[in-house]
Amino acid sequence: MKKHFLALTFLLAFVGVVQAESIRHEQRQQMGRIDQGIRSGELTRSEASRLYQREAALRWQTVRDRRDGAGLTWLEPNRIQTQQNRLSRSIFRQKHDR
Length: 98
Known about the structure:
Shape: elongated
Strand content: under 5%
Radius of gyration: 17 Å
């Protein structure tokens, strides 16, 4: 019984680490896309500023969700991914709006 409990605990911890790294990777990619948009002239300073603010708000929400308990609940990664997808679409729209 203890072996099963330890294996399950390890598996849940591993899944949590993988989810957290996936979220961080997506955030880094989106910041890079915003930076690239500024360098190429596809984004104005005000557009980039709004996108940076949205990214920071999402990052802060993720940090708060992790602090509230022993990590993210099973629903929170899906909610975060949905918000990241929306931000990604916003970045695309802002970069291609002209």
